[in-house]
Design a protein that fits this description.
By secondary structure, the chain is an alpha+beta fold. Helices cover about 40% and strands about 15% of the residues. The two termini are about 35 Å apart.
């Protein structure tokens, strides 16, 4: 409780009073004091804007009739492009379909103009898979994310330093896994343009 009061009080102090308080606390604990530089709000770096990203992707979706296969969402993480399995991968596979390469090429043309980092996430439904290539849904989801990221990097020129991948298996569904249509929605790759 004391720390909370101290922190609250510190948030209302000016810089000189703050430095005195830090020195006093350091002396109480017997340690050396260090001054933290306070950066004015005007100097705090702001994340690069996503510009017309949403409108460009929505135009792409409508122009190419991808409305049932690609969904767009913006949240605190950034802009997420949900690409459903039917357009990207054959069932139980991590090999990109020819049609998915066209979609990814079109998306890459928009995304690579941005300075933002991009994370590729692989997702599955809750129906277990057990093949020699994919012993579990974890393996399949990671392999799908990797296939997508590798294509975007090697074939479409996305900067590998800005790319990351993750597989979530069945554990981040968009819809209920109780229905066929829900499971179809959950089998997807998400491309997230990080804010």
């Amino acid at each position: 409780m004391g720390l909370f009061i101290l922190l609250y009080t510190a948030s209302n102090l000016d810089v000189q009073k703050y430095e005195k308080m830090v020195n006093a606390i350091g002396n109480v604990f017997g340690g050396p004091t260090q001054t933290i530089k306070v950066i004015p709000d005007s100097e705090i770096p702001i994340a690069p804007p996503l510009g017309n990203l949403k409108s460009d992707i929505n135009s792409l979706i409508e122009k190419n009739n991808y409305t049932s296969s690609i969904k767009l969402e913006e949240n605190s993480r950034g802009v997420t492009i949900h690409i459903l399995e039917d357009i990207v991968f054959p069932s139980g596979s991590a090999e990109l379909k020819k049609s998915s390469k066209i979609v990814l090429q079109q998306l890459a043309a928009i995304i690579k103009k941005l300075p933002n980092d991009v994370r590729i996430e692989g997702h599955t439904d809750n129906i277990p898979i057990s093949t020699s290539q994919f012993p579990s849904n974890w393996h399949l989801s990671v392999s799908r994310a990797l296939s997508t990221a590798y294509y975007l990097m090697t074939e479409q020129g996305l900067d590998p330093e800005k790319l990351s991948i993750v597989g979530y298996s069945e554990y981040k569904p968009l819809d209920s896994n109780e229905s066929i249509s829900g499971r179809a929605t959950n089998r997807r790759v998400d491309i997230i343009i990080i804010k």
